[in-house]
Amino acid sequence: MPAADEQAGARLERLSPARRALAERLLAERGRARDTGPVRRGPPDPPAPPSFQQARIWPRERHGHRATSLVPSALRLGADVDLDAMEAAWRRLGERHRGLRTVFAPDGEQRAGGPELAFERLDLDGVPPEERAAEVERQSRALAEEPMDLAAGPLARARLVRLAPDDHALLIAVHHLVTDAWSQLVCFRELRALYRGGGLPDPPLQYADYAAWQRQAAAEGRFDARLEHWVRALADVDPDPALPLPAGGGPFRLGLLDLEVPAPVAEALREIARRSGASSFMVLLAAFAAVLGAAGGRDEVVVGTPAAGRTRGDLEQVVGFFANPLPLRVRLDRAAPFAGLLAHARGVAADAFARQDVPLDLLLGRLDPPPPPPGRTPLFQAVLVLQNVGERMARRAGAGHEDRRPDEPALYPFLPFYSPAGAAFDVGVQLIERGGALAGNLEYDAGRVPGDLAEALRERLLRVLAGVAARPDAPLGSIL
After folding, report:
1. What does residue 376 show for φ and ψ, rounded to 5 degrees?
2. CA separation for the pair 160, 396 (Å, rounded)
3. CATH of the domain at 269
4. Cβ neighbour number for residue 356 with a 10 Å cutoff
5. Could you give the C-alpha distances from 444 to 65, 246, 324, 335, in angstroms and in order?
6. Residues 193, 344: Cα–Cα separation, whole Å
7. Which of 174, 235, 439, 455 has the most C-beta neighbours closer than 10 Å?
8. What's the mean pLDDT when you consider all of the chain?
9. What's 50's DSSP letter?
């Protein structure tokens, strides 16, 4: 047996029976994903069709910029930053990952090798010291709100902000057509190595290679077996959570409410997940689904979540838009204990993530759901995102992170308003693990969802999570 297989087997043996069964199920499906054939390296910059992910959101993007368009992030840098070296590292990153320099023709065809990545420098000497942290956040959000020209590029830009001689922040905004959260981690890690002058091997693949492979695999029916699971799981699904919304409603407007699960509650939820052979995401999925079901009077709800979409090892270091939305159909029983709902949510999520490489467009083609309102996804109107790459991203990327003063908090990547379907939705929860707690936002369409309803959903979710942490075996109805 190869050493890697022996190590994997040893790790499986240390898991609880429930977690071992879950891991074995995911590994089996990952092995089946390899049956779709190898991804092969193509010519450097040929015109190429967009991936299914890009094709899903490109039509909307070409008609105007929206809050979901760009993925912003920010890193606090230490003292003695070589500004020229940082700029050179950023531009070299664009040379390595040519997908970051993609531009799009009017018909959606993509071509890598567009203009070099944009880089600016900004000095905050004229800003009072006590206002500089707020100014950095304002600059980051402003960078993410500046429209990008899809046909001319560039679709990635950085702004290096000098707060003081020994304090800098690197602000980044990349169009969602060419990146996702996993790609940001790859970029930050490589940016650190390039800044320090380290050599990196050439990427074995580019995103255009993946897009061409994905299209060919779909044309040859190589996703069909896993697609059948999705068709069965979502037959006759109703995506509307039936929230008590007023009639009519205006155009999409982003509404945000702060959301924080205190560290003691978050740790109790993690322990419940460990005992149940589940993950923190599965606990949050069960709780969020219960809140939505109670608010809408439904005994089942569909919650969307983005999956990394990288079921193959040869795609792990490729930069691009791989994230694929997964519709998770959760059935509810208010008389059953939360532990039973968690077991159900665990199975739903495990089955879905094991088949996360099936493009949403193929599923829509088979289900043929009724067309949703403009700009909306047809399979879900609620979204849950647990980003576990925030602190880990800064820690592993390490762009000067270890040089930070001990009394100064690191500036981790800002939480973007992240729409995994490239469309608006009624309500979403996005959390990130930070300092033992879970922090983030409840996000909602303020053009449709009244602010008091959004506030009530947030408070109910926090109450349910606290109740689950204290009484995981209590009937669901008593926690709600």
Report:
1. -115, 155
2. 20
3. 3.30.559.30
4. 23
5. 18, 14, 21, 29
6. 43
7. 174
8. 83
9. P
Spatial separation of the C-alpha atoms in residues 283 and 386, rounded to whole Å: 11
Collapsing DSSP to helix, strand or coil, 392 comes out as: helix
Residue 203 forms part of a structural domain:
no
Total domain count for the chain? 2
Give residue 396's pLDDT. 44
The tokens describing 42, both together, are 């193509």
Q: Has residue 164 been placed in a domain?
A: no
State how far the alpha carbon of 123 is from the alpha carbons of 136, 143, 399, in Å: 11, 15, 19
| Share above pLDDT 90 across residues of the chain, in percent, rounded to a whole number | 53
Q: What angle do CA 431, 323, 111 make, to 5 degrees?
A: 135
Residue 140, both tokens: 């980051």
Expressed as residue numbers, the domain containing 380 is 224-479
* Rounded Cα distance, 466 and 262, in Å: 9
Strand order across the beta sheet in which 300-307 lies: 254-261, 437-445, 427-434, 382-387, 300-307, 324-331
Span 23-70, pLDDT tens digits: 545 544 454 544 567 787 776 666 788 999 998 888 777 765 454 578
Please check whether residue 122 lies inside any domain of the structure: no
Rounded CA-CA distance 464/466 in Å is: 5
Place of tokens 């206002």: 131
Residue 429 carries which side chain, given as an amino acid letter?
Answer: V
Q: Which strand ranges, in their side-by-side order, compose the sheet holding 156-164? A: 70-77, 167-175, 156-164, 118-123
pTM over 0.85: no
